[in-house]
Design a protein that fits this description.
Layout (H helix, E strand, L loop, with lengths): L4 H10 L17 E6 L7 E5 L2 E5 L5 E3 L6 E8 L2 E7 L5 E7 L7 E3 L7 E4 L5 E4 L3 E4 L7 E4 L5 E6 L7 E5 L2 E5 L7 E2 L7 E6 L4 E6 L3 E6 L7 E3 L7 E5 L8 E5 L4 E4 L7 E2 L9 H18 L10 H5 L20 H10 L16 H12 L4 H5 L11
The protein binds heme C.
The site of heme C has 23 residues, from helix 2 and helix 4.
Amino acid sequence: MMINRTLNIGIILLVIHPIISWANTDKVSPRINTIIATDNPQTPLYLATQSGLYLAKDDGQITLLSQEKNNLTALAKDNHKLFSGGQTSEGANIGLGTSEDNGKNWTLSITPSHFTGLSVGKNQVLYGLSNGVVRSNDGGKTWIKTVQVKENIYNIAASKTLDDTVYITMDSGLLVSRDGGINWKPVFPVSLPALSLTVTSKGKLWTYIAGKGLIMTTENKPKLDVVYNGFGQHVPMHATVDESNHESLYILGNKGQIWLTSDNGKSWDRLGGIPKPQSTVAKKGETLFNQYCASCHGNLAVGESYSVQSLTDQKYIMAPALDGSAHAWHHTDEQLTNTILKGSPRTVRMPPWEKSLTKQDSLDIITYFKGFWGRRELECQGPKHMNCPY
Ligand code: HEC
């Protein structure tokens, strides 16, 4: 089977920059580049953002950890040590940062170019993404260039249990090296983009493969076991595990939402919580949405999840997210109602619903999914989106 690379990669790359999209929307929120678990459930995550390192609480509130407001593009943790890489706001390489006090103070060392990924493996071997894969056996003082890869590498994760074993994710899939980064081979016989990736201290491997879903497997016997494919149009970009709960996983989606599971992917929550419908109208809308719309637009209106067909068939039009993360908010309620009742002229996949639903039903559904919208989407809905101050 041929995969149309330009098509599927285009979809993913267009929407690669996450933005914090929960609570505190009055403040200018920094874009999150990557996340690492702290292993403390009350303050579960470090967030490497475009303007510094933050700590996220379980209610979704965030606090700035260090004074430097660099664009942190890589973050890794090894017991109590944190490593970071990135650029200053002017674009200069900051080298490798090492912190032994949970991210407050950093010592910097010089690196060849800036890191877009970092991971600590067995015996404290440090791996980085820096125009290919680089490795340091001395805690980051000196670096060996192992391989130059032309494709974009999204993530790197070193094994904590197997010697010299390291994984990367790219548009062509999940690759493994068993010799410290020199030779690479695909882990699975599929050529689909692999994105988020993490390996636990017990040898469990989590990765997201677009078209398949979230995979949970073991390093010893990797199998393409899909545990969940309900992220809709939110693409899992980065993942991290709370090492105090081996059934946990945190995922940073490309729209800035952080998803979490504490039962191996059976049930999901979001950092900061998922808004629940409050009014009778919204609750009525929820029931109708789940009955008529969720099969395509996803649970919680996250949009249609990627399938192999949606990535390979250029004519396939996916059902967009209606939760404020796509552009449904560029339309007025009147226009949205019109689409719902009359269908889309572009595809029979969005049929007219006027035989099953009244205008009021459609407005109730809109009230329900607008419950997921943030301040920007609500205040700038319709033509105002062209000139939105938020
Ligand atoms: C069989 C799949 C399917 C079902 C069921 C479905 N939709 Fe859609 N919907 C789509 C597709 C595909 C599109 C994209 C159409 C396009 O791009 O022209 C779409 C587009 C839309 C849009 C336009 C969004 C935008 O950003 O312009 C709205 C609103 C919408 N659907 C609402 C609903 C509602 C409400 C329901 C339930 C009553 C529903 N849809 C049921 C497939 C579906």
